[in-house]
């Protein structure tokens, strides 16, 4: 490293629960080592969220955590358990709404050396992150009858379409499909399509298409190579992004980003897996690749490249992989292998 003054980035760190603290610690070790080699320093502001935070402070999202994100404008988050069918609201969804992180961005790309049924996949899922059924407007009309309200607005639909097309233009992606169910939900999904069509007119170099959501799921399984970038509303994006993760090896490998105009939070898209917590067997790849997205967001491409190259080398060599990808290594050993690969790249 040169004698130049290190670039310092304050980052809000939310380790999460279950396997969250383990994979987060592994990723922080790698980030700090890569940063040391490239002149980047991280000032971590560490906070609990969810049930752990409530037990300690009486809040699921402590005020201090919110203040930290407002200040740093960037967060790195491990998985946080969300109760099913009751309990507190999803921490992920709440943070996205609170900070208007309207674009959920998930690149789906094979890791070299890892054999899957679909080699060479290179997809981008862009999901509207603030409305749709995820607004959580539901109530019991009478016992046994629950009503949920789906909200689609022209503002949010236009905003996410513009984000998707701008990303595609910058990254020289060739086409975008808007995914919908407008054959049935003619007003709500029809409005989403109307906005996407209007936005597409400003990007003539990008081929625009539309597919119905159920057909899209079938087409992805039959031939994912026909797609490039897919933009869709909230619930469809949640489902399709997990489906696409399966094409390249599962949720343990795929990064995620939630981006707004004033803040961004980068997170692993998998769950907290409490059944394997504390056993040193979790795969930190998803959170590590999310951290790479964070570095690119911070315009620290050299640090991002250093980590991504080392990670891919570990997968190509296939000597120190975790159990979910047919290896025998633990979380710490996997992180050590990435660190060694970075050291060897000097």
TrEMBL record:
<protein>
    <submittedName>
        <fullName>Isocitrate dehydrogenase [NAD]</fullName>
    </submittedName>
</protein>
<dbReference type="GO" id="GO:0004449">
    <property type="term" value="F:isocitrate dehydrogenase (NAD+) activity"/>
</dbReference>
<dbReference type="GO" id="GO:0000287">
    <property type="term" value="F:magnesium ion binding"/>
</dbReference>
<dbReference type="InterPro" id="IPR019818">
    <property type="entry name" value="IsoCit/isopropylmalate_DH_CS"/>
</dbReference>
<comment type="similarity">
    <text>Belongs to the isocitrate and isopropylmalate dehydrogenases family.</text>
</comment>
<dbReference type="GO" id="GO:0006102">
    <property type="term" value="P:isocitrate metabolic process"/>
</dbReference>
<dbReference type="GO" id="GO:0006099">
    <property type="term" value="P:tricarboxylic acid cycle"/>
</dbReference>
<feature type="domain" description="Isopropylmalate dehydrogenase-like">
    <location>
        <begin position="10"/>
        <end position="338"/>
    </location>
</feature>
<dbReference type="Pfam" id="PF00180">
    <property type="entry name" value="Iso_dh"/>
</dbReference>
<dbReference type="InterPro" id="IPR024084">
    <property type="entry name" value="IsoPropMal-DH-like_dom"/>
</dbReference>
<dbReference type="GO" id="GO:0051287">
    <property type="term" value="F:NAD binding"/>
</dbReference>
<keyword id="KW-0560">Oxidoreductase</keyword>
């Amino acid at each position: 490293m040169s004698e130049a003054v290190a670039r310092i980035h304050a980052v809000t760190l939310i380790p999460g629960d279950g396997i969250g603290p383990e994979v987060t610690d592994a990723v922080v070790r790698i980030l700090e080592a890569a940063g040391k080699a490239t002149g980047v320093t991280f000032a971590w502001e560490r906070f609990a969220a969810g049930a752990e935070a409530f037990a300690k402070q009486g809040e699921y999202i402590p005020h201090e955590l919110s203040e930290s994100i407002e200040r740093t404008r960037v967060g790195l988050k491990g998985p946080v358990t969300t109760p099913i069918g009751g309990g507190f609201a999803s921490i992920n969804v709440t943070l996205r709404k609170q900070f208007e992180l309207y674009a959920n961005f998930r690149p789906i790309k094979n890791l070299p050396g890892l054999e899957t049924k679909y080699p060479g996949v290179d997809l981008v899922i862009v999901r509207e992150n603030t409305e749709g059924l995820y607004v959580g407007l539901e109530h019991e009309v009478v016992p046994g009858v629950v009503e949920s309200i789906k909200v689609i607005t022209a503002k949010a639909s236009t905003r996410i379409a513009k984000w998707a097309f701008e990303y595609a233009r910058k990254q020289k992606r060739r086409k975008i499909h808007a995914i919908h169910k407008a054959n049935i939900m003619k007003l709500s999904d029809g409005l989403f399509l109307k906005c996407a069509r209007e936005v597409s007119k400003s990007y003539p170099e990008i081929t625009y298409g539309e597919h119905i959501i159920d057909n899209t799921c079938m087409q992805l399984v039959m031939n994912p190579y026909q797609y490039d970038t897919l933009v869709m509303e909230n619930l469809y994006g949640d489902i399709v992004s997990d489906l696409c993760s399966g094409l390249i090896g599962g949720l343990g490998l795929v990064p995620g980003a939630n981006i707004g105009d004033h803040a961004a939070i980068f997170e692993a898209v998998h769950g907290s897996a409490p059944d394997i917590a504390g056993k040193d067997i979790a795969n930190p790849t998803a959170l590590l690749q999310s951290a790479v997205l964070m570095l690119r967001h911070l315009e620290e491409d050299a640090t991002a490249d250093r980590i991504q190259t080392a990670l891919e080398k570990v997968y190509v060599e296939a000597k120190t992989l975790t159990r979910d990808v047919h290896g025998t290594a633990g979380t710490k050993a996997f992180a050590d292998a990435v660190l060694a690969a970075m050291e060897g790249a000097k």
